[in-house]
Known about the structure:
By secondary structure, the chain is an alpha+beta fold. It has 7 helices and 5 strands. Strand 2 and strand 3 form a beta hairpin. The chain has helices at about 5-15, 90-110, 110-120, 125-140, 145-155, 160-170, 180-195; strands at about 20-25, 30-35, 35-45, 55-60, 70-75. It is elongated and about 55 Å long. It starts with a helix and ends in a 13-residue tail after the last helix. About 30% of the residues are buried. Strands 1-2-3-4-5 form a 5-stranded antiparallel β-sheet, with helices on one face.
Amino acid sequence: MRIHNNELAKAARxxxxxxxxxxxxxxxxxxxxxxxxxxxxxxxxxxxxxxxSFETGVCWLWREPLRYSIHNGLYIDDADSSSSVEHFNEExxxxxxxxxxVLRLRAYFRGVRAAADVVRLKVNPTLWxxxxxxxxxxLVRKPDLARRRFRSIAGATTSEALDFQVKARQLEPLLDNAxxxxxxxxxxxxxxxxxxxxxxxxxxxxxxx
Length: 209
């Protein structure tokens, strides 16, 4: 049995909408707007009920994304899951697991400090990882770490480094002024929200805890 889009949409709506999540158009993507980041849950349909899966994770809005991507997250494959009931409602089970992960992400990333702890420990960091670490570390007033990551970006020689280097040159001089740095990051978050069609926030979210 293949999960039907309409059935999955109903199950996702029942599990995720009460949490405040919303569907991206008619897609299998559900979003959780947390102000400075967006939770992204993307369902994948398998040819068999137990081959379905979903991805869930965080889209950092300070990256000024042009589309909903998962920057930190996980992929959950239900291929090995089982049920004592042969015709268990696969849509409900999958959506319920997704709702659990939404709540887990909310609890973990309640503040920027958690984000800073996660991104700085990535093995073999990419330029994006360095950028995420620099921004989150600067927000929680760890300017030395932020400066090292910005300078790591400045020293990169890959073809994609130029855009990152422009961003780093704009932000690094602000690290000694916490208020100015926070305002600059908030402007990038606001731009990211606008690019994704998210509503304008009446006030900037708390970015230093």
